[in-house]
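I have been asked to look over a protein record a colleague put together. What it holds is a sequence and that sequence's fold in token form. Please read both lines and tell me whether the tokens look consistent with the sequence. I do not need a full report, just your reasoning and any doubts. This is what I was given:
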Amino acid sequence: MGLLNLSCLGLGYLLLRHWVGAVLCWIATAAFLVVALPADVDGVPAGPLVGYGFFLLLAAADGARRGLRADLRLKDAHRRLALPLALVLLAVPAGGSLAYGSAREEAREQALLDRLDGADRLVASAEGLPFDKAQPIYRKALATYRELGTEHTGSRAGKLVPDRLDAYYEQVSAPYGRKAYCDAVAPLTYLRELPRTVDADLLGTRPDKTDEPLAHSLYECGVAALGLGTAQPAAEKSLNALYDTFPESAHAGKVEPAVRAALGTRTAALKGGAAPCDTVGELRVLRASLGVLRDSAARGVAKDAAEAVQKGDFACGTAQFRNKDFADAGETMTQYAADYPRSRQAAHARSIAIAAEIAEEEPAAGRKLPPAEEPDGSRMVMVVSNDGPDPVELLYTGPISGRADLKACADCTTYKESPFLGSKKKIKACKGPSSKYPKTTLLLPAGNYHFLQKTSSTSVLRDTKSSKQKIEPGYSYTFCLYTTSLF
């Protein structure tokens, strides 16, 4: 009777017609099934399992005790049937235990598949995000793949990990497939360096397959950024990474020809180009990049780049002058003459700077560029005197351009003007003894000139005066400078 009660169904009590005991066994078994089912990965909690086992032992002991007392009253057929039936019915809990173990294993498999599915959803959610935002998501998903692929290799989920890793590599490296080479550098570098943190056997040859795409991306990204100061990353960053990581690659060998091509394109654009100032800006960026490249062949192009920048500076200044941007032209050409004092164009640059400064006050002075060469032939004398209390800087442009400085006249004053008079009174300057006035002598070829008189004092309101003068052959000229202030 004890063995029959171990069937979990209280069959010993049924044979003894002990209905209360049978009902208690049914209630205990039903309660245990409610707790145990459905099967969980962690199995049945220890408390209910121990309690139910203890209950079955008590039921078996009680059934055996009651069976011994009632044995004499049982019919012979019942006695002969009881023991075989008890042994057969012991298969019920044993079979249930096996079935529960199988269900528990299936639950474990399903839990692992759910984790795999969660990692898949993480990878899918990162698609299209900038890599700096997607990388933490990718790392979290990869941690799940790594655990399933190394700690649960024999599970159904573990066997699916290789396919998931293939899809993972494909999605992370997707920018390379779209030819977005600069965007591809960071994710490809991440994939290539995964063996540092993830089991190399699990990754297999996948990291090695990123070498060619990464080298290609570094090359394309770096070459595309040559001369572009706003490019991210800068050309030298990508190209130096290429030299450091793949120094023997075919892509590293293509950098020097690409640099020369970029330089040639921009140098050609200086000749008749619509925007030489923009082009020279790109040339400056290109020259700066070449100065820090780790490849000696590419650095060798730097000298050519420096010469192109010099040509570009002059082309920019002349373009500004022609476009009537006289302030910018004067600044550009003044800087050119300072940067390249030994250049054959330094004198011409100074002439253009002077003409641009005069043209800011007298636009007619900027109708055409000053000539690059001074004309041959005779020159006429022009004596310039300063009838003013301040030093004067005199600028002139025409067949030749130049500037002259005159000292202040110690005994001279400003000439007063009143804006309230109907007509200005004619000023008679330089009427004193000639020795009174500081002088300078100009030797000018014949032609039309523009002059600009600039005083260096700001103690009172004064004019900056511009004037025109035609210099004819065979004559000498005098030119009197003076300053005026409001009455």
